[in-house]
Amino acid sequence: MSETPLTETPQEFEVKPRTDGRRIDAYLASRFIDYSRSVLQKVIDAGAVEVNGRPVRASYKIRAGDKVRISLPPLHDATPAAEDIPIEVVYEDEYLTVVNKPADMVTHPSRGNWGGTLANAIQFHFDRLSTIAGEDRPGIVHRLDRDTTGLIVVAKDDLAHRRLGLQFEHREVHKEYMAIVYGVPNRDSDYIEKPIGFHPLVREKMAVRDLVDGGREAVTFYEVVERFRGYALVRCKPKTGRTHQIRVHMHSIGTPIIADKPYSGRDRVTLADLEVPGAVADDPAGLLIERQALHAHTLRFTHPITEQPLELVAPLPADMARTLEALRAHRIGEAPAKRAR
């Protein structure tokens, strides 16, 4: 049963002929535009939608003349509440700011994460933010996964946001990520060109999918920065911006990102994993990292107002730096080509 609270006063109406044959969840989403389809599906699952006096499933096909009765939950205020959450500002002027997002922070509010997000933090720290991304995403131009660290651009006015958005859309923003992976890629550098779509079985994952199966074009350039026995540090430059793109692409060539449980099967790396003499598997002191080792390291783009080039860098976070030092000490391999800052 859904935990969504419902209103006490239900609404009743009759289905018109022009909507005959539609799924009821889609029909209700078009009728109640302030509610997402997923919320309305929960309302249906809770038995709060009746057609002709009987509860129905989300897949029910409505017919002209059906009498619908629905109890809706109160609307959630979409504007993120300002929260005094510390953030690291890498760059700021009157038009935009760039922040270094920490791990375990969602970019903007979503189901199950209404607070503690980057959007909540920037509402507190900045007096003015763009609005064109919607009430729930003030200033947010792009996003990073919850446990991916690094650079995110925040717009302070709509013109800057619109122009930044066009740069992302036209692939004019140069992005570099640093990742630590299991194994060593067969090539020093290469392009991974494999379409990505929703995983056919696990809704929280993405996967390499053929275009005919819903995959979308995805291209990532990678180069090996440093090699170790059984591990590598790689620099990834995505040319497209698909969900989980780098994580899926590195997994697809047999070198998944370490501690990335959905794609590598493990959620942490310890000194014991590196076979360090005397290290104990469950010793908290031996924990190196417990989230995917992926960091948005460099951004290069054109300032949306001044049109001057900007290049910004966020140093590796402490957990990735700690893991690299352990690898250098205990998993020495080939000499590094170039060490990350």
Write out key terms for the chains shown.
341 residues; alpha+beta; Structural Genomics Hypothetical 15.5 Kd Protein In mrcA-pckA Intergenic Region, Chain A; Pseudouridine synthase; nine-stranded mixed β-sheet; 7 helices; disordered N terminus
Short description:
With 341 residues, the chain is of the alpha+beta class. It has 7 helices and 17 strands.
Low-confidence spans: pLDDT under 50, at least 5 residues? Answer: 1-6
Strand content: 25-35%
By CATH, the architecture of the largest domain is named 2-Layer Sandwich
The overall pLDDT, averaged over residues, is 90
Overview of the structural elements:
- With 341 residues, this protein is α+β, with helices and mostly antiparallel strands.
- Residues 1-6 have low confidence and may be disordered.
- The protein is globular.
- The strands form 4 sheets. Strands 5, 6, 7, 8, 9, 12, 13, 16 and 17 form a 9-stranded mixed beta sheet that branches.
- The chain has 3 domains: 11-70, RNA-binding S4 domain (Structural Genomics Hypothetical 15.5 Kd Protein In mrcA-pckA Intergenic Region, Chain A), CATH 3.10.290.10; 88-169, Pseudouridine synthase (2-Layer Sandwich), CATH 3.30.2350.10; 174-330, Pseudouridine synthase, CATH 3.30.2350.
- The longest helix is centred in the last third of the chain and has 13 residues, at 318-330.
- The protein is built from 7 helices and 17 strands.
